[in-house]
Amino acid sequence: MHYKEVKGILSPRNGMNIYRGCTHGCIYCDSRSRCYNMSHDFEDIEVKSNALILLEEALKRKRKKCMIGTGAMSDPYIHLEEQLMHTRKALEIIDKYGFGLSIQTKSNRILRDLDLLKSINEKAKCVVQMTLTTYDEGTCKIIEPNVSSTKERFEVLKVMRDNKIPTVVWLDPILPFINDTEENLRGILDYCIEAKVYGILCFNMGLTLRAGNREYFYAKLDKHFPGLKEKYHKKYGYSYEIISDNNKALMDIFKYTCKENGIVFNVNEIFKYMHTFEAKEKVEQLSFF
Ligand code: SF4
């Protein structure tokens, strides 16, 4: 772990990453890709030392409230968060200034901050995004080794449901020859139905590979799935998009099941929902008139 002072914390679309790098070890992680120009090892977490000061200044300056997003490039609940609590402190700032939050993680450490998630959601909107890729717990431990299992993430989704905090599931990525099966998909969809998720994001049944993450992914395939790297090489070469042969059949099941259960699956609609700030008090006042 090392500290670095940064110039800004919020992106033009109000996204932020408190940390850079991640210790969750997902074998397919796109954030490892060379195009992101990380100057340190991926597991050597860069802690943005002035992130909280910058966040507070930025929120104070904003004329209009909005949703603040986090978790796109680095999980906000990495191991280090247990001691540093920078994510928690960022949530306190977001709560203090009445902004909304859209937060993405694979860790049940998020439950520590349930009080803040509830508070943000009472004043504005808090959307918790969880990634679910692998129903089988043994395979999940290989693919996403250092983070909560799929079942543990399902438990988090249910806690959010019980606390009226809306959730979105990223059904992504799906790895050809590993978890691109109907059984896997139906298992995850059953979890989503029971947890009453608002929406499921799934672009297609596949993954993306490019310089940096491809090498890491192939090394892990060699270790855990002997012979599979050669199969990927033969079928996909150096393609960026790696789409499963079962894509159409699985996408049909996915869309049909979502429709049947009132789960939003239109990607644009879900992103719009996650980016739209809603002040709860205002809604109540309007309905009074
Ligand atoms: S949790 Fe996200 S950022 Fe961390 S290793 Fe997994 S995919 Fe990468």
Automatic annotation (TrEMBL):
InterPro entries, per the entry: MJ0683-like (IPR040086), rSAM (IPR007197), rSAM_sf (IPR058240)
Keywords: Iron, Iron-sulfur, Metal-binding
Source taxon at top rank: Bacteria
PANTHER family assigned: ELP3_MIAA_NIFB-LIKE RADICAL SAM CORE DOMAIN-CONTAINING PROTEIN (PTHR43432:SF5), SLR0285 PROTEIN (PTHR43432)
Molecular function per GO: catalytic activity; iron-sulfur cluster binding; metal ion binding
Limits of the Radical SAM core domain: 8-239
Stated name of the protein: Radical SAM protein
